[in-house]
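Need tokens for this chain, all 176 residues.
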Amino acid sequence: MNKKQRKAPKQPVFERPVERIFYEMDQRFASGNKGLYALSIALAFFGVMGLIWMIPFPKLGFLVRWNMDTFLNWGSFYIAVIIYLYLRLAPTLSYAMLFTIGVMSFFIVQLEYVERDGGPAVWLVCAILTVVGIVGTSFLAKKEHADIAPADVWRLLTVGLIWLWSKVFDILKIKY
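Here are the structure tokens for all 176 residues:
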């Protein structure tokens, strides 16, 4: 049999773009330790969210009058955009991410209390966690594949948490 007669492996057909994204990630990163991936990706995501949260937000008069100024910051906009993007990819998984982001938001607020009481600055803690998460994710990806591209690491960091949630949903047999 010559090269022309051999059949190329069949690419699965995907109903939704998220299925293609998860398939590609499974092909690229499934052989690694998903627990370490989850930890590294979560640290990076938490760190970035915390850094965005700490960017000073302008005092708007109408928010101050309604005592709503403490509830709005740049992190709120970041969360809204992320949840919207995840909602477009996979609605059920976006709810799991909303829960995850809620838990992370709680811990960012706790870090603010620690800083207020004389602890380390939240931005510093979040910067360190971001670096640790990105380095850990990059290390894990490079350990599996010597030719990992920065775009692959970026995809892992941006869609990685929802991809890991899809694995939990698969185990629990919940359709996403």
